[in-house]
Each structure stands twice: as structure tokens, then as C-alpha cells.
Amino acid sequence: xxxxxxxxxxxxxxxxxxxxxxxxxxxxxxxxxxxxxxxxxxxxxxxxxxxxxxxxxxxxxxxxxxxxxxxxxxxxxxxxxxxxxxxxxxxxxxxxxxxxxxxxxxxxxxxxxxxxxxxxxxxxxxxxxxxxxxxxxxxxxxxxxxxxxxxxxxxxxxxxxxxxxxxxxxxxxxxxxxxxxxxxxxxxxxxxxxxxxxxxx
Amino acid sequence: xxxxxxxxxxxxxxxxxxxxxxxxxxxxxxxxxxxxxxxxxxxxxxxxxxxxxxxxxxxxxxxxxxxxxxxxxxxxxxxxxxxxxxxxxxxxxxxxxxxxxxxxxxxxxxxxxxxxxxxxxxxxxxxxxxxxxxxxxxxxxxxxxxxxxxxxxxxxxxxxxxxxxxxxxxxxxxxxxxxxxxxxxxxxxxxxxxxxxxxxx
Amino acid sequence: xxxxxxxxxxxxxxxxxxxxxxxxxxxxxxxxxxxxxxxxxxxxxxxxxxxxxxxxxxxxxxxxxxxxxxxxxxxxxxxxxxxxxxxxxxxxxxxxxxxxxxxxxxxxxxxxxxxxxxxxxxxxxxxxxxxxxxxxxxxxxxxxxxxxxxxxxxxxxxxxxxxxxxxxxxxxxxxxxxxxxxxxxxxxxxxxxxxxxxxxx
Amino acid sequence: xxxxxxxxxxxxxxxxxxxxxxxxxxxxxxxxxxxxxxxxxxxxxxxxxxxxxxxxxxxxxxxxxxxxxxxxxxxxxxxxxxxxxxxxxxxxxxxxxxxxxxxxxxxxxxxxxxxxxxxxxxxxxxxxxxxxxxxxxxxxxxxxxxxxxxxxxxxxxxxxxxxxxxxxxxxxxxxxxxxxxxxxxxxxxxxxxxxxxxxxx
Lengths: 201, 201, 201, 201
Prior knowledge:
Four copies of one chain form a homotetramer. Chain A is mostly helical. Chain A has one domain (4-21, 38-195).
């Protein structure tokens, strides 16, 4: 089985999730600038989720593109990941509408945590399938950032019980961490491309 | 007519259906953990529908990819299948919001049953078009799992009148059945790929 | 400019329109079978619109695939067509919620009529660009069914003022007319394919 | 990294944004023609936003297609652009529902302005990456229309405080300006295509 179908379907689902989240920002009925104030927290959680889902799209694309083939476990691990990402619109709305109260912030962390775990499982399934054939898949799968994210999310959930803003700070920290490009992977990808060109040419 | 256009359009529609279902989980206005309780049944039916639609995407992709060409009847059989799948968000919301009451569970079964029948009609149209030319299409079309699903859905509808949880158990049984990979089809696909490579190389 | 980008974008927009229409069927809060009755008219108009949008997708794909190139007027004629199709969810909801009252049925007809006109303009722009080079584009553009549809829609709008069901009957008549495959176009497409194979082979 | 993944994802997101905006036009419960009147302003802002997003899709596609490669800054500049475009459904709904009151018109201008700035940043990132290698990217990036749009949006925001209709007139002026095709870019694209054909043939 090729990776094309998985990639196209996942891209479609992620594109829809990132876009329908905006529907959680309910249009206020008043035209005053003040009427936007209650939406501000929803806007902030929208920004956080937009960045998070964009990071997942980016990482997902990287790891699937590095893969050469997929099997049934990979396919279901992928559906599992999409399931947790699909819950972002709900937790974004709940956290925003309740102005970052404890439980909504905790649930946001739980969904982020589970999405991170699902990504880890997907990576493991890909590594198992490719074995030592593909060093790239192994490199991406062993990726430290993914593991660190999951740990920060877990500590964020616990810290939310002290004060929800501490948890929130953890979630923003993860998003910021991903902005910094990873030279190791980029160089691996350039390497792979060079090898492929050599093989074809 | 090639299969590309049908595949891309169906993938798009199915990706949107699987994602907008999450909008049926209305964000509660309170920030307490208890306020999530009424959403739990909607969440459970969301999980069931997410898996169901993912299975349809998977099967649909398999059978269309095995096909070499389409005609007008196939195209309309496909639109017919997409129509029934498009009703999943509605029945998911109704069943969840009414905590698995009898009629909503029955209607969920009816839509699942009709989607199964529509898939069967699509398979029949593809077999008729390909005749004995393609053993793969015939193999997929004769697929036992599809027929068994339809029968279990029908019995689920009837059992819902005894107790809706019996019907629900039937629906979950079908979803579980599809998780177990089908070695027969996978081997056929590998075979086909090998033949295609031989023909090209 | 190639047609690929136009095709992919239009396919995406049409796939989303056909799917979000289902959101106009609001989930009833009661679990009785009777509570579905007020939704029945919305369901009927949903079925009509689903078929209509599916027909537009089919025709749009045919004519764009027959084209070899596009220019700015074609691109804007296409956006114009997508605009009118995008209003189907609104008129579907309005017509269904008001149980096929006069004005909603009239507006449904107006949007159907304008979409038909927009399709005609798109066809004209394609013919003007391709000139006599492509007999296929000319054949599709001269298509009688398109013109007849627009005339039936116009008469449907007028008949709605006598009784809305008369207008509705006209709209269903157009949808039914498109179900019957057009042997003339299919043979032209087969012909074109044969010529292309000859040129390549 | 190739441009294919960026193009497909952006096309998907933009197609969804242009389509879900129609959901901001809430279906009226009455069936009278008068009940459509309060929706008229929402319809007008829907038309404006539909054209605006269509223009962004068009321009985005042009500049990405002209690019040969992307890097991390381009990817994030693209996500940043999609973020501002994703706010169009919200500002469209707010402006329409409040009948073009001052603040909603100002916010519409701010989002339009920021989207214009984000497009400018994306163009700059692409130029920086391609350097003098690609004259086409440079030509598109230096594009005057983009800069003029941003200036008109800024003046539209200020004029909205005098009277919101003045601001609105500015926004419509920008949309109209983009309808006039740019012969300079079209000829460059034809040129590029010719060169590519020469290289391949």
C-alpha cells in the first residue's frame, strides 16, 4: 500500500479541523468594541490551537513522506491520531468560553497529551514496519521533541490544578519549542532527496 | 472515464463528514467537570461514527483503487453511498443528545444499514462494469464482511426495540469486526501490484 | 495556465457545500419519532440540493476536463458559478424550515436559475477561449440540457406563485432529467480518449 | 522540500474558509420576503469576503507555483497568512449582523490589512529563498497591487471613523482593482511555461 491515500485524507481532515475551529468564536450581537472582550479568551485559545494543529500537520507530513509503505496498524494509528486532533475545536471552545478555568484547561491538556501519545504510537508503528531499512523513519520516530512535548503536557495538566495559567504557559511553551526549526531532520531530508535523485538519474 | 476524479471527490466529502461531526458536541457553558456529563453520550456516539466513517473511507478507497474505469451507474451509485454517509452527523447528534433512546438508536441503525446497502450496490455496479476482466474487483465485491455487516445492522435495528443497548452493541460489533485486517484482500493487492510492476518493467 | 488548479479548488468547494448542507437539519431535542416530522421538509430539500450539487460537480468536471487551457475570464466565470452554488445550503434550509412556502421556493428557484446561468457563462467563456480548436468543448458548451434546465427553472419560479408545489415539481423534474445519461457526450469523450491514446502511442 | 504539500494544504484551507462563511447567513424562521431584509447586509459582506478570499486563492496559487522550493520560514509565513484569512468568516458575520456599524467595519479592515501584510511577508520570504535565481518570484513579490491594497486598507480603516460606508467603499475598491487582469504577470507565466517546455522537449 502506498502512502499517497493516507497523506491526502489526513491533509484534508487536518485542513478542515484547523478551519472549523473559527466557528467556535461566536459573532457578538452588539457592534461595540467592548462586545469583543468576552471573545478575547476564545481568540487566544484559537491562536494556540491553530498553531498546534499546524505543527501536527507539519510533523505528520514529514514522517509520512519519509515512509515508503504503510500497513493496517499504521492506518489505524493514523486514524487514532486524527481522532484526538479532531477534538481540538471542542476543547478550544470550552477553554475559551470559560476564560481559562481549571477543568477546561486540564481537558485541553489531556487532548494535547493524547494527540502527542497517538503521534508517538504512529511513529512506533512506522518504525516497526520499516525496521532498519529506513534510517530516516527511525530518526524521525526517535525524535526527542515529540517525547518532551508529551512530558511538558503531562506536567501542564498537573500544574493547572495549582493555577490554570501555569498549565496554559506549559502548552504555549510546547508550541514555541516547535517553531525553532530542527537542523538535524532538515539535513536528513536533503540527504534523502539527494540519494533519490542519484538513484533516478 | 478514469477513477481519479471520483476518488478525490469522495475522499473530500468523507473527510468533511468525519470532521464536522465534532460540531454536534456543543460546548457547555459551565466550566465544571460535571457539565461534561451530558456530552458523554454524544462523545460515545461520536467515537462510533468516527470509526464507522473511517472504515467506509478505507473500504471505498480499496474498491475504487482496484477498479480500472467507471461509468454513469457507478458514479451515481457512489453519490448514493455518499448521501447515506452524509447523514451520520445528524443521527450521531440525535442518538447522543437523547442518551441512546430507542428511536434515535433505530434511526442510527437504519442509516448504517442503508450505507451498507449503498456500498453493496456500488460494488455490484463495479463488478458488472468490469465483468470477469478483473478478479480483484470481483473479490472485493463478493466481500463477505460487507454482507455480514448489513445483516448485523438489520438485527441491531430489531433488537433496539427490545432494548436500545442491544442494538448499540450490534453496531459496535460491526465496527470491531472491521478492525481485524483481511489477509485475503491484502495478499490480492500485493499480487496486483506485482503484476502491474511486471507489466511496466 | 493549466486546468489542474481550477479543478482541484472547485472540487474542494463543491465537496464542502454538498456536505455542510446536512448541518441545516437541526437535531431535535426530543427522542420521539414524531419529533422528526418537522425535519422531514428539510430532509426533502436536502435530498433535492444534494442531487443538484452532485449534478453540478459532474457537469463541471466534464467541461473542465474537456478544456485544455484557462484564462482570467474563465477563472472568474468559475468563481461566479461557485458563488451561486455556495448559496444552496442557505436556500435549502430556508425552504425546508418553512415547509415549502411560496417565497422560499421562489428563492430556491432563483439560486438554481442563477447557477444555471453561471454555468452557461462559464461554458461560453471556455468556447470563446478554445474557438474551433476543440470540438468537444463546443459540444459540451452547446449542451441542450443546460439551456432547458434554465428555462424550466424560470417557469418553476413563475409557477411557484400559483402554488409552491408546482415550482418544486419543476425543480425535481430538472434533477431527474440529468439522471438519464447523455450517450452523445459519453461517445465524444470515448472518441477524445482514443485520439489522445493514438497521439501518445 | 517541494511546494506540492504547501499548495494542497493551503488550497484545502482556503476552499473551506470560502465555503463556511455561508453559515454566517442564519436561515430566518419566517417565510416572508421581508424576513430576508435583515440578512441583506450579511449577504453583502458575504459577497465582499467571497471575492476577497477568491483573490487570495488566486494570488497565493500564482506565487507558490512560481516558487521552486520552500523552507521553514516560508512554511510559517504561509501558516501566518492562512491564520488571517481564517478570520474572514468571523468579521464577515460581525460586520453583516451589525449593518456596517463603525467598529465591525474597522475590524474587517484590520483583518484585510493584516492578511495583506502576511501576504507581503510570504512574498519576501520566497524572494529571500530564491534570490536572483528566479526572476518570476521576484516579479510577483515586487507586485505593486499587493502594496497598494495594503495602503488602501489602512486608509479605509481610518475613513471608517468618519463614516463606515467610506471604509467599505475602500474595501470594495481593492476587490474591484484585482478583477482587472495583470498582463505583465500572465506574459511572464507564459514565458516560463515556454522555457520549461523547451527544457523538457
